[in-house]
Design brief:
242 residues, alpha/beta, Rossmann fold, six-stranded mixed sheet, binds adenosine-5'-triphosphate
């Protein structure tokens, strides 16, 4: 059986300037893979490429099928993205119910109310949250709504772009634990991008440390916890993360 996501020699350039230079990794079902590295190393570009937001060369296959063949609605059914700032990603004048119901309406999926209530429950928000607006929610609650919106179409893969870095430290752990539970319960795959080693090691079994558009070292979470690295750059990154 093929991996959920298989990325090979992915490369991305902006106006001829290469920012991702041949990145390869794979994600199994039920597993989270992390891409870590300092700002500007190309992490978000990889997510945006996989989400169909700009072009890339190389190959990316979802369950064996080239991602480029899945466009628009089909891609949205199978791959969803969660952004760093839940406030910016939620429409200020839409209630939680409208935000969560919208993808169902677009995809002509019925039973909207039942599905909205079920997903709110799944992300740890009660039924009363349906009627709230984003400004009536805390940062953590907003990110839970963004996660619920990403999950309501029952995708197989979530692309998570710094999903906790806009949150207070205490709330970060709650949202990470929620993501961990959902990963297990739904047998999803995650591609998590972060500059925070602790966040990635908490959620991901395997990760790639990026530098200037390349994965310079592939690591397991156990290696990260033990501080074991071959590359001098990785050891520096570890030291700076302590
Ligand atoms: N739309 C764009 N046009 C031109 N250059 C871009 C564009 N988006 C990103 N870049 C450049 O590509 C490089 C990689 O950016 P990217 O956002 O992928 O890095 P990152 O590792 O995710 O960093 P950050 O954590 O700051 O988002 C950076 O040098 C950035 O300035």
């Amino acid at each position: 059986m093929s991996a959920l996501l298989e990325v090979e020699k992915l490369a991305i350039a902006y106006g001829g300037h290469a920012v991702v230079k041949g990145v390869s990794f794979q994600i199994e079902r039920g597993a989270a893979y992390g891409l870590i590295g300092e700002s500007g190393c190309g992490k978000s570009s990889i997510l945006r490429g996989l989400a169909g937001l700009h072009g890339y060369s190389g190959s990316a296959r979802l369950d064996g099928q080239p991602l480029g063949e899945l466009r628009g609605k089909t891609l949205a059914r199978r791959v969803q993205m969660v952004f760093q700032d839940p406030y910016a990603s939620l429409h200020p004048r839409k209630t939680v119910e409208q935000v969560l119901g919208e993808p169902l309406l677009i995809h002509r999926i019925g039973d909207v109310q039942r599905r909205v209530l079920a997903i709110l429950d799944e992300v740890g928000l009660g039924a009363a949250f349906r009627f709230r607006y984003p400004h009536e929610l805390s940062g953590g609650q907003r990110q839970r709504v963004a996660i619920a919106r990403a999950l309501i179409l029952q995708p197989e893969l979530l692309l998570l772009d710094e999903p906790t870095s806009a949150l207070d430290v205490s709330v970060q752990a709650e949202v990470l634990n929620l993501l961990k539970r959902l990963l297990r319960e739904r047998n999803l795959g995650y591609l998590l991008v972060s500059h925070d080693l602790a966040v990635v090691a908490h959620l991901c079994g395997h990760l790639g440390l990026m530098h200037q558009g390349r994965i310079i070292e592939a690591l397991s979470a156990a290696q990260v916890r033990a501080g074991i690295a071959e590359q001098p750059y990785t050891r520096e990154f570890f030291a700076a993360s302590r």
